[in-house]
Amino acid sequence: MGNSVFISVWAVNGVGLKSQPAHSEFELVEGGMLDLARRCQPYNCLGHCVCAAQDKTCSDADNCRDISTGNPNNIIQVTDMTNLMSSDATQSYYTSSDNFLAARWRIINPQGISPIRYECSAGHSGENSPSGIYDTDTERTWFDVGENTETIITLPTAKVLDKSITYSVFVRVWYNANQYAIFKSPGITPLMSAPSVSHIAGADIKELETILSVKDLDYQTSSNQIIVGWKNKFRGGIHGFDYFKPYISTHPQGHNVHQSSTRVPGNTSVYTATNLNLQENREYYSTVLAYNKAGLLSWANSDGILIDNTTPTSGIIYDGNDIYDKDYQNSTTVISSSWYGFTDSGTSIVKYYWCIGTGISTTDCNIHDWKNVGLNTRVSVNLTSPLNHGMKIYNKVYAVDGSGLKSDVAVSGGITIDITPPVPVDIDYIGENLIANPSFEEGVTESNKECDDQPPAPWYIDSTSCIKIIQSQPSVSKEGGTYIKVKGHIQQTVFDLNTHSAYHVIVHVGYPHDVSIQHHNVEGFVQFGQETHTFSLDPERCRGICDINQQPLILWNKFTYVFYPREASEVIRIGTSKLHMILAVDDVYVQQVNYIDITSDSNHLIHHTVFRPYWSSLHLTWHFKDDQSPITDYQWALGTVKGGTQIQSFTSVGRNQHATASGLNLAHNTLLYLTVMSTNGAGLTTVSQSESIVADMTPPIISEMNDGIENDVNFQLTKLISVNWKVGDPESGVEYCHWAIVY
Hints:
Layout: E1 3-9, E2 22-29, E3 33-36, E4 65-66, E5 75-81, E6 94-95, E7 100-109, E8 117-124, E9 143-146, E10 150-154, E11 167-174, E12 179-184, E13 189-190, E14 196-197, E15 206-208, E16 219-220, E17 226-229, E18 234-235, E19 241-249, E20 258-259, E21 264-265, E22 270-273, E23 283-292, E24 297-301, E25 305-307, E26 316-319, E27 328-329, E28 334-340, E29 349-357, E30 368-372, E31 378-382, E32 392-401, E33 410-411, E34 415-417, E35 423-430, E36 466-471, E37 482-487, E38 489-494, E39 502-510, E40 523-528, E41 531-536, E42 547-548, E43 551-552, E44 557-563, E45 570-576, E46 583-598, E47 605-611, E48 616-622, E49 624-625, E50 631-639, E51 648-652, E52 658-664, E53 671-680, E54 685-689, E55 693-694, E56 701-707, E57 723-728
Parallel strand pairs: 4-12, 6-13, 16-25, 27-34
Antiparallel strand pairs: 1-2, 2-3, 5-7, 7-10, 8-9, 8-11, 11-12, 14-18, 15-17, 17-22, 19-20, 19-21, 19-23, 23-24, 23-25, 26-28, 28-31, 29-30, 29-32, 32-33, 32-34, 35-46, 35-49, 36-37, 37-46, 38-45, 39-44, 39-46, 40-41, 40-45, 42-43, 47-48, 48-52, 50-51, 50-53, 53-54, 53-55, 56-57
């Protein structure tokens, strides 16, 4: 019949790559059968035929016309592709492979003759025909694709594309057996490496405060957006980046919170994720994927950011450089402060700000302006201008957490500048004795009972105490003709007290005149309001001197205490520490004192003494004042030289203005010296020393006793009785004398 049929067969592997086609020519014979042609003729001017050896032609080229220039026939457009599975016909300029090229083409100008078949090749884009890949002398250059409009060209073994060269796919379009035109793609450059990730300092994925910031945030307050930055984190090489994809997640390299809906341009290094719903005290991580123009990617993630919307809790601030808060200081230039208790449950505190002002307002910082002191909780500053004496200043602190949230300003209680120490003062008594019936002379009734039912009003007792009124000779009682014996305690309410003033409480106590040798030693107490002070009496019960020539007497011990009442009325109690002890009490005083002037002598140091050869006691009272800061501590010492501590070293009694030393074993005529050290709230100290106190163990000596006014007389005419005597005591002098008339 003379008609021929051409059949082409390709083999396709599992990934879609096609082999070169096998072409065969068949002749149609009578009866409809196809007979393989054993002899064939070239079907184009290049000598291509179906019966030639592989990659060979049947004849040399003859009469071929390349009409690439001024082509009047169909014009095609060749596009470089990296994914032939996609329907997208967009030109690709970069490929991640170095061993194959792919392209797709289409007719864009259907003029003249249409193509009958296509051949493909590949080479450098800068050439008009394929070169740079195949050796045209030894290797096949063009590959038949029939009427297909796409191709994948795989390079021969051991050949790879050069990453510095741009390659094109060449398409030879045959319009008939003698005419063809060559077209090529725009070119594609191999990029086989993904963007590199930098590990230099400062090149990180960061959460930023603003799009212009460079510092990484660990905390933020916003719960609806995160600004992500990645400047210098990735390196795109000479071809740069194609785009970036940022993600936000609750774990590194995740995307469960946010992913960018669009590609971030490759020349951008910051992205703002908005419309988020971030949770308080939750940590979030930013991940950025960097793509190069071949589609290869690298990624890195941030170290996380914590959402914190809660301000720090304010704490407590102390004035001074001590572990305790100070109200006063003596330095006019050095100001110190410390604080504690500032907390933040979320991002933690990252710094403190501190200032000093003369007002309690949180914004008053006129002495020292706000200063960032980091995480220090103890600071000190040397002022250039000294502060004035008596000035009160306030330290102020606020905390800032990692999110930049500020606590409330904590203001200290204030500290006052005091550059003067306490001063010793004389005293003056104001008003009368506030004790009613102080020596138990009023309302006395005789009783044979061991314990009287009631003490003289307005004194009273409780149900466990026992009192007995003793009417005695004046030589026995301290004041008047009555004193009281107490087991337990006796008490009275004192009214009309001034809570801003000091009071002397004076009591006279001793062993009763009829005390037996078997009686227990007395340990007593004086309580005024909430303060209680104890005392001890001679444990030998004035051995051998409480009954002289069968004349009973009481050696009264005088104790003076300084009290500051808390209320306008307070209860005074005087008694024994145990109920089996018996105490004689008389002549009780409560009287307001006033500090009248500064003294330079030792009158402000008051002492009451009991000297026995076997037992001695000193009860001491002193008076100081400080108008700027309160006196916070007294220390006292006792020595045998002025300022000495031979008998007792310096001992603190706190704010008490009295002290007792008992049970001393002193020699007759020993000289004692009292030293008191007074310290105020600013730490300034004044030391006062007494004049000598003589330990006198001997009684006064009566050297003469005369009837009459002058010389002793035996008779007189008048009824006026006169007597004179001479008495002396070389150690301590004579305080008073008692005299009586007998017949």
